[in-house]
Design brief:
Elements (H helix, E strand, L loop, with lengths): L1 H11 L4 H15 L1 H16 L8 H13 L2 H13 L3 H21 L2 H23 L5 H22 L13 H14 L1 H7 L1
Helix pairs in contact: 1-8, 2-9, 3-4, 4-6, 4-7, 4-8, 5-6, 5-7, 8-9, 9-10
Length: 196
């Protein structure tokens, strides 16, 4: 179901998906987000791991953190909460995340529980940044943000299936870069013609 939803999202709107992805990975690689997130998770694993446990706390933490932070409900719900004070979508998402994390924890262990702190910080930052991003949040920008999140979910799904080893965390800046890049492209007609 996840890949189908993502493919539907990709075919629905995004006009600048490649530009957003390239800019995001440049920023993400420059900041080395994936490595930092993995080092943080490995540090947690070394601190909390008990002998004989074969399940990687780090893998559970990273996978759950990314899975719960890049979906459309996270992005739209956080922006909606920040702009209008309506938390209904985030509350609905929290129930869905509880069910998903219960199932994920069976195969990925206790690291999934530790992801709650990362999700709280990430969604809280989006809620707080929503006011600053409001001038940039056109319908096209929101479509690009949702597309970027959907692409991250596809990458994460491929990683979970063992098909690839994409550094999904390096693409996280796409969520913030998408509306900024959209505003630049719409503001400069020459860029709009080039990317359009």
């Amino acid at each position: 179901q996840i890949p189908l939803r993502c493919l539907l999202c990709l075919s629905a709107a995004p006009e600048n998906a490649y530009a957003v992805a390239l800019a995001a990975v440049a920023v993400g690689e420059g900041l080395d987000l994936d490595d930092k997130l993995n080092r943080f998770a490995t540090g947690m694993e070394n601190r909390f791991k008990k002998g004989g446990n074969e399940i990687s706390l780090a893998e559970g933490f990273v996978t759950a953190s990314l899975l719960f932070c890049v979906g459309a409900m996270t992005i739209v719900g956080s922006l909606n909460a920040g702009l209008t004070g309506d938390y209904e979508m985030l509350l609905t998402k929290s129930v869905l995340d509880l069910i998903s994390s219960s199932m994920l924890a069976v195969s990925l262990g206790i690291g999934v529980m530790f992801a709650a702190a990362f999700v709280f910080v990430f969604q809280g930052a989006l809620v707080l940044l929503a006011g600053f991003l409001q001038p940039l949040l056109t319908a096209a920008a929101i479509n690009e943000i949702i597309c970027a999140g959907s692409l991250l979910i596809v990458g994460l799904g491929l990683n979970l299936m063992g098909v690839t080893k994409i550094k999904v965390a390096d693409y996280l800046p796409a969520i913030l870069i998408a509306p900024i890049l959209c505003a630049i492209i719409q503001a400069v007609p020459a860029l709009a013609a080039f990317f359009g």
